[in-house]
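User: Here's a structure from my thesis project, written as structure tokens. My advisor, Dr. K., wants to see whether a designed sequence matches the one we expressed. Can you design one independently, without my sequence as a hint?
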């Protein structure tokens, strides 16, 4: 397989233009019936189903998902855990490819419109109950597949030690309370089988920011807390941050200027 090195890296515009990266994006767009005129763009995509049942393919995920898939080298039938799955299309895409997917999220109602919907339901006292697990099951069914979904905090995973061949967490740790990210990475490491791999993406900035984003030093501290092995080849350096953010904005957002990038790293548990 033609893997672009280094594995542990921030977004690069070159990745986005790699045909094999783009093939994955297009496959996911087509699975979600994203209108053709929107094809090859990296904006927010959904399958446009009802607010409660819509699956999502958010902008920076157009880099993060192909990064994971290209580096995952998952064997057929591999048992994979998605930590903080949200409504991300990735879990359904991988399940459809035949992997054995377990997904965990503290809530499936992250999208602010959905949150707004449930606030109104609660305010008006309407007799509608939020059933996260059945919403996830309905989404999986729509994609002709199934995922084993659990409502849980990933800082306390409800699984036995060494259950999964691979564990991943896409853009979740920056949303957790202070200190819980370290608990989560230790938990993900605990449930990983020996010889297994872990994949993590986080919001990244080379400088400390008000919104939570990891610097290179924060990422290295997280990796060290995991107790797992780290391939020392990485590329988290940005020489001209402002220019780089302009490039990201042109690729992903076009309207609001990107304030952070995304960085990804892969860890291995000794066999
Ligand atoms: C930016 S979304 C990413 C969702 C998904 N990974 C994707 O690719 O679209 C962050 C997700 O993390 C979840 N999350 C935040 N804190 C969590 C926690 N402590 N345990 C489990 N999930 C959590 C949120 O509910 C939300 O669905």
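Assistant: Designed independently from the structure alone:
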């Amino acid at each position: 397989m033609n893997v672009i090195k280094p594995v542990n890296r921030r977004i690069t515009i070159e990745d986005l233009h790699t045909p094999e990266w783009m093939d994955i994006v297009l496959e996911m767009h087509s699975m979600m019936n994203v209108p053709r005129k929107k094809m090859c763009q990296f904006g927010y995509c959904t399958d446009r189903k009802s607010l409660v049942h819509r699956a999502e393919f958010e902008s920076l995920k157009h880099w993060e998902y192909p990064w994971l898939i290209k580096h995952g080298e998952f064997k057929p039938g591999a048992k994979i855990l998605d930590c903080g799955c949200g409504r991300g299309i990735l879990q359904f895409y991988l399940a459809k490819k035949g992997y054995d997917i377990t997904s965990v999220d503290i809530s499936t109602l992250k999208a602010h419109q959905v949150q707004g919907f449930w606030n109104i339901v609660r305010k008006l006292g309407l007799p509608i109950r939020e059933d996260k697990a059945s919403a996830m099951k309905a989404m999986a069914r729509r994609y002709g597949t199934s995922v084993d979904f659990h409502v849980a905090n990933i800082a306390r995973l409800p699984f036995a030690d060494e259950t999964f061949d691979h564990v991943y967490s896409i853009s979740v740790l920056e949303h957790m309370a202070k200190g819980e990210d370290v608990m989560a990475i230790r938990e993900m490491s605990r449930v990983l089988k020996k010889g297994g791999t872990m994949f993590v993406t986080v919001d990244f900035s080379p400088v400390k920011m008000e919104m939570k984003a990891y610097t290179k030093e924060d990422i290295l501290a997280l990796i060290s807390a995991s107790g797992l092995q780290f391939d020392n080849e990485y590329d988290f350096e940005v020489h001209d941050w402002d220019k780089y953010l302009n490039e990201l904005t042109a690729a992903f957002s076009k309207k609001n200027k990107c304030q952070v990038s995304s960085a990804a790293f892969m860890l291995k548990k000794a066999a």
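When you compare it with your expressed construct, this may help: The pocket of S-adenosylmethionine is lined by residues 56, 58, 61, 84-86, 88, 90, 104-107, 110, 153-155, 170-172, 175-176, 180 (CB under 6 Å).
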